[in-house]
Amino acid sequence: MPPLFALVDCNNFYVSCERLFRPDLRGSPIVVLSNNDGCVISRSEEAKALGIPMGAPWFTLRELEKRHHMEVFSSNYALYGELSARVMNILRDLSPRLEVYSIDECFLDMSGLGARVAEHACRIRADIQRLVGLPVSVGVGPNKTLAKLANQWAKKHTRSGVAVLGNEQQREYLLRQASVGGVWGIGRRLRHNLEARGVKNAWELSHQDVGTLRRCFGVTLEKTLRELRGECCFALEEGGPAPRQMILCSRSFPRRVEVLATLREAVASHASRAGEKLRRQGSVCRMVQVSLYGGGADAPHWHSVTVPLPAASDDSRDLVRAAVAGADHLFRPGTRYRKAGVTLLDILAPSSCQEDFFQPPPRPDGQALMHALDQINTRLGRGTVRLGRIPARPEWAMRQERRSPHYLCRWSDIPRALS
Amino acid sequence: MTPDKSTPGQGLRFPLYLSRVAAGFPSPADDHIEARLSLDELCIRHPDATFFLRASGDSMTGAGIFDGDILVVDRARTARSGSVVVAVVDGGFTCKRLLIDRDRVWLRAEQPGYPDIFPAEGAGLEIFGVVTHCVHALPV
User: Fold this and answer.
1) Between residues 88 and 117 of chain B, which touch chain A (CB distance below 8 Å)?
2) Phi/psi at A315 (nearest 5 deg)?
3) Taking a C-beta distance cutoff of 8 angstroms, is the pair A221, A228 a contact?
4) What is the pTM of this model?
């Protein structure tokens, strides 16, 4: 059975989340700013039309805000994390195998659907719009790289929001339309290099000599090239060419768990493992999402909470502290939990973190400690050296002057319906 | 029987339930000690599609919805004529009873003195979700 992948991703995710409880903002230019009101990390179509680039620093936008009545939001991670969890839960019902790739992207296994794949893709989009109220695009192809390209095509060129790559002619057409920079895993520097060599689009890229490119740019590009040609090189649950945008560690309990101390240990362990993966790919993260699965004899479900970190970190101690705080928050006595998971979100390269005067200073020996910890655990086995007792939950203080209300996690903030 | 969603990637698995029908004497091994009663389970059938909104006003007191009450709103349910819904009106959320009559769709309050709300000419009526429960706190 030939493999078939769908990439489902939310359109302008953070903005769409902000619009869910603000129907008055449809059609308005909206931007969402990063932590500490730094830079633009999400734009509505109307804001894009005003020429606002991704990553624009906030102070450059104040004129536009006034002139076009642009709505500006600080990141509301609790909202985005909760809505993301709901979307992923719904997708689990719609596909036997999936890989949650980032806070708003998910790969689904669609092999075996044959001719019904387009209908199923449309149903996915319709269901998520109906159940959660978020618009998603769905791209289908024989591998992840082509599914991503099909998804971009669906977003830009279709009204249905769905695109299925069905045959060779469609593949050629899609690749000719796609820029080199639009291909998954091709970063800015690589794009410049390739364009300097005269590679004008993804179709030409797919015809480059693999050996030559591998010598110049490394092995990862080879897999991308082969995927552009229609081969399947990245399996489900194996990520892709770029560092992961999201790292998930979870495990089922062999027996139902009802004791908070056990849950804390479990999430601390997941957070540690996730921290190892994070450091291995040289990234830091800013958000930790904790999920517990249980409750309800006949219909258990996932409960999640998102804990933002005061500063971007790859230090397991920070991740564990956040994870334990999350578990404390979610725990309900009397519930029989079956599974726990920790997800690291908002992952980025350390160099792209904007430093802020008000965030706490990094621990002076943090890096050395983490390096030693990783070395010992690599040689002697995972978990040889573990973190000790978890201290009490600290205060999370973050500058978020324009954050929308906590619609989904504070009773005082729930939206109003005139009645 | 419910599909086991707890292990994504493993396919669907159906837990085997022991019979609840009395057949002779109850077996001590028939251990279905459930967790304590939960209002979440009572009121929320589709957790991923359910949202809480706060009722603001007096137009629905006839339906038992009072100012300040918490509305349990389910987007997974199909709204029918007679459903109490949260709809989008003038860029905001409104809670009213939905009425459908052949090809007309409109909103009605549950209190005299409030006019019916009809969607604009040519426009549809957008329903945010169906109100399934209303939580009213009594003064203590």
Assistant:
1) 88-89, 91-96
2) -85, 120
3) no
4) 0.78
